[in-house]
Amino acid sequence: MSRPDDDATDRNSLGLATSFLELLRTRRSARRFSDRPVPQKIIETLIATAGTAPSGANKQPWRFVAVQDAELKQRIRQAAEVEEAKLYGARANESWLKDLAPLGTDSNKPFLEEAPWLVAVFKLNRDDEPTRKTDQVYYVNESVGIAIGMFLAAAHVAGLSTLTHTPSPMKFLGEILGRPAHERAYMLIPIGYPANDAEVPHIERKPLERIMVVDAGCQPNAIDPTRSLPSSMPPSS
Fold first, then answer.
1. Does the pLDDT of residue 100 top 60, yes or no?
2. 19 assigned to some structural domain
3. 77: nearest Cα among 167, 151, 155, 160
């Protein structure tokens, strides 16, 4: 039997979780950015937040390279568009192109210069901390993916827009940014305030019963089918 203070704690926890859900339901990827500057201190705080992520054996196998220099951004855009032209021209099969069509994307990536910052995330193939006992790293992709998720959430909480951009291959990022060979480009994230005329495509989020099961396959509200479930979609206007 739960105690009254446990019930109060649960209600508080649910309230906080619901508030966070309501905030993140408004998060959308942006491809149009304002030229309004974003202070470096904000980017530092977001990356520090990402740095709190869990990682295999606490090796923290990530490097966040924050780019604001206009010439560097131009070079990154040019190199990315070369790879994107190959993707849309030959690498992507018909199904892939059909899936991309509703998003209205193509090989032109002006946001790589428009955004005040580009955050290039690299995964570390070995631990380069001099005080470690070994340089081995573990669960690198999982660890870096979690850190990026926390970065994106923190950026949205701060009122900024982001885009997860993964031109492939991304070897050019390490070359342009002078990163060592054991750092491999993982993701490129434009970040800034959205442009006043920014538009995003209409998308749907899967309902909770399509992304969650309880125990051996039960629906979340199997005990009480009349109970409404939280939704990843914002309320319809």
1. yes
2. no
3. 167
